What does this fold into?
Amino acid sequence: MLFRSLVKNSESSLSEAQRHCPPPVRLQQLPAAEPSPGHRSREYFRINTEISVRYWALDNPLQIASECSASVNLSAGGLRLRQTIPLKLRQEVVLALTLPGEHPVMIECLGKVVRFGELGEGRREVAFEYTRIAGRDRDRIIAFCLAEQRRVLRQKVRVD
It folds into this structure.
């Protein structure tokens, strides 16, 4: 009996509450924003860092960019750096990267030239996209980029 009166009271209070609630709001779904023309979203995040790099055109293995510690823009999808040997758009290259650290990591992969940029004073930069890279090597680049990003953030905290 007590249970029935509780249920009856709760039903009456629910209908009382429902009378004082505003009508349900109808949500409208908006279309997703389109990226600007020419903009391609990146699959991997990028960092500016110093690594050792060597590269050469697949069709001209005798012309090798000398190995140097270079300032690069690096991601698990490709890299951008100052150009040291002549290359053409979409030309295939071999990339040899050495990621610094307590245990340096050497990575060799294939890539292609996807873009050039003018740096001024006759200097150019070249951007490569990896076309054939082992999954393990891509994971190593991701781990390096994350560690480098953490290192940079820690330095900023100490400075501020």
The longest strand covers residues 105-120.
